[in-house]
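Help! Submission page says 'invalid entity' but I think these are all valid:
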Amino acid sequence: MQLNGKHTVNAAPSVIWKMLMDTDVLAKIVPGISRLEKTGDNTYKSILDIKLGPVNSSFTGNLQMEDISEEKGFALKVQQHSKIGNANAAIKIDLLPLGENQTEIQFDGQAKMTGLLASMGQRVMGGVSATLTKQFFANLEKELDKQ
Amino acid sequence: MSTTNGWIGKSVKRVEDKRFITGKGNYTDDIVLPHQTYASFVRSPYAHARILSVDTSAAAAMPGVVAIFTGKDVAEVNGVPCGWLLHFKNGDPMKEPKHPLLVTDKALHVGDAVAIVIAESAAEAKDAAEVVMVDYEELPAVTDAFKATQAGASLVHDDAPNNICFDWTLGNPIEEVDAAIAASAHVTTLEFVNQRMVPNAIEPRAYNSSYEASTDKYTLYTSTQNPHLIRLLMCAFVLGIPEHKVRVVGPDVGGGFGSKIFHYTEEALLTWATRKIGRPVKWTSTRSESFLLDAHGRDHITKADMGFDKDGKITALRVKTYANLGAYLSTFASCVPTYLHGTLLQGLYTTPKINVDVTAVFTNTCVVDAYRGAGRPEATYLLERLVDLAALELNTDPVELRMKNFIPPFDGITQPGYQTQVALQYDSGNYQGVLKKGIEMLGYADLRKAQKEAAANGRLLGIGISTYIEACGIAPSAVVGSLGARAGLYEVGQVRIQPTGKVSVYTGAHSHGQGHETTFAQVVADKFGIPMEDVEIIHGDSEAVAFGMGTYGSRSLAVGGSAIVKSIEKIIEKGKKIAAHKLEASEGDVNFENGKFTVKGTDKSVSFGDVALTAYVPHHYPKDLEPGLDFSSFYDPANFTYPFGCHIAVVEVEKETGKVHLKRFVAVDDVGNIINPMIVEGQIHGGLAQGIGQALFEGADYDENGQLTNGSYMDYCMPRADDFPMFETASQVTPCPHNPLGVKGAGEAGAIGSTPAVVNAVIDALWSAGHKVKDIRMPMTSERVWRAMQS
Amino acid sequence: MSVRIHVRVNGVDYHHDVEPRTLLVQYLRDTLRLTGTHIGCDTSSCGACTIHVNGKAAKSCTMLAVQADGCEITTIEGLSNGIELHPLQEGFRECHGLQCGFCTPGMIMTAADLLQHNPNPGESDIRHALEGNFCRCTGYHNIVKSVQYAAEKMQAVQQNKKEVAA
């Protein structure tokens, strides 16, 4: 499944970058996250509770940041396991300064699913990912407001 | 022989319906045995993965768990076998990798079973299966039959280079066919995919296996189309347990369409496990599992060239097909794309040169085997698409082009059968007849006018024709044996007259919707001249019925019915001896008619019931005659039967959206003599729905990782009630010359003829508006049709 | 943990303790052994499990048994009085509206719901009403005819009753 999109937020790339690198902030803005643990440099262990259409499922797995280019972007690798199947994703995230206090966050990547997620979930997956993306940016803006 | 009180040919209402309409059917999942346990499977979520470890300890501690078995536990047991041996062109036997009951080292498709968990309840079994920890290392997968044969493709089985199971050819030498194509005035070429279909019987597969220690006997209830065949394969090839110690029962079965012919791993595994735990084990597939595991159908990638001379006569046909077999060899997988496909490529035409070349390929997908029509729909699709496309290319009428190329009528009695270029000899046919009747029913000439008018008004109307032939009544044992079948394909029919004149009939055929309890009873009641209520048809139980090969390939009536007729003849023959004795006449003077034995030229008679009673109370009885009136017969057909017909679809395509509206569907089928017209019509309807479903709605989609992305009813487009118009059907009767009932078989016809008719209609609609497209990939979704119009 | 429920099924009262996750269809099949209601899928798509809950058609796989607490339920086994067939049952037999019989109970229950609120449905009404029920055997042609047969029969009975009353 293709994952891509962009969103403009009213903050400088440096501010956004700091938030994305902060485990506590991340735990607040990534939708569905119930636990996020830093396990090493740029690697995290996570538990996510996500509603997929009619099904609620708990995902456990790893998040990994690679190809980090300070305040510009990074590649996010996601490996998640659940009773209804596994999901692996590789997403490139870029921060583009639009002005002094404006940044366009772009993401582009692919997710690979197995099990019931693949055979039954595909139809709802597009909608789910759109919702999660929306929530992510809404949460991000909420956190920005706080700061 | 004697006849008849007219049961044959009547639309008798079905005997079996009473229990189904009142909820009293008895399907496998309805059966619960004392001390029942339930199974659930741990299945690979990956299409191709090495299994690094399996940890069942947490699962074993779950509530209600009775036992857990992994691949290691069943390692000594054989895999499930393939029933048809083919050879490479070079003479080497096909690759037959083991299809284990549970995998140990590698999972080869999504759903491959790693472990079985048995518990006190189905829910507990499922709960425990979810906590079995399996460590996988994902490997690259292959899903496309052509790509899988290319250099660098990942291997499904290490011992099958290029993933090829076998290659195979049939027909005239390729050099001759190449030359004929090269010399043709016109060549129509088509490259297409006959997509993978999911059979989707509404009853999911279910098994319930038990073992009785005191008698050392097993019983397996199974949703199968052929209980005896399952018993034979499971006992002799997989488990090595004596056949007479196993009873296999196929109770009411909720549809099969081919998918319940095959011997599945779960049948053998449950039978193995029941003895291990000493309790009955039941497993009912979920629909999600059905999608991943029940043998799929079709999945051919084909390139075909058809040559024509300057007068429009077909000169040659050349076919190259890559057939996807899935990850393992299913029971009849090898014969479907070969002997059930290549042998039908003569179609209804006099094509003088034909060559077909098939490469059968392993991929990391569900196994592929017979699905309603099995090979014959693929052959028909290929031929009828080519002929209709040629008509468009040559700017000639598709009816005319067909008429010009049809084999002339022959009855198979006074005129010989038709010898094809691809091994078969057709029994009898009148192909012009069905096409003529079809276009009459349709009002063809008027519709063509309407099509022109519609086109002028910017509407896209299309008429698609398809004429088909199929080889049914499977099959002469010696013939199929010489082609690689590992079993005979005769049928068994036992007729037991009870002392009171009531009749019990035991057939090796199996009904899972076909209505044998009615049709077979009609035949028996007709032949004996007795009421239908006096006849009971017993099927589906290996303990009750001597033997049987089951129901598939439209064979039940042609082969199973013929076996019953043979037994009826033996009973009448013996009955005449008893009657002659009772009537003090000579045996040669005794006739049997309308339920009575009479003596020629006298008014003396004795009823069927009296003769039956005398046979069992033989106080006054012929000296050298055994008591009783009970005969069993094996019928091995002399040839296949060859039903044929003409299907015509009328569609309107929405210009703006590409949506296809099926406006009319006309089907004229010639299935030989008809015992019950209502049931035959019902069989045709069902086949049409599946064939039209393939053209417009259905198709399994695997992604490049081998995940089935539409493995549920939410995602796989099953045809619904409002997807179809009322079907317009009619029959023509050209009797089969070589079986006693003159029947040819009706189960698959609808699914064979209809698919190309619909596709041809859509292509025709597009050409009417100047979009000269050759092919639209099935299923022809709005998007695909719309894109075809933009190109 | 289990929950006590009381349901009235085909005119008989039942009190049972059920696991909260038990689907209504499982309760009917496994506990009450009313196996005429079938399970054909796991996504509430096929309609083989259709029954009547408080007089309305419902897919019994979309309901938990505990949700049916206090409800009046009719299954295929209770559709007729056991002596005479319901006009729909008769229609399915007369018009060859079934082959393997697996979807039939659900089809009949759905059609019965249709005829309750539309006694004289046209072909497209019937096809639309049966959209949530899969049949793989019949191509739906004879199912449509079966429902038409039943509708006509039920109307004729109504007409007779009216005439008798008048």
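Support: the input was valid. A stray whitespace character was the problem, and the output above is from the cleaned input. Chain C touches chain A at residues 43 (CB under 8 Å).
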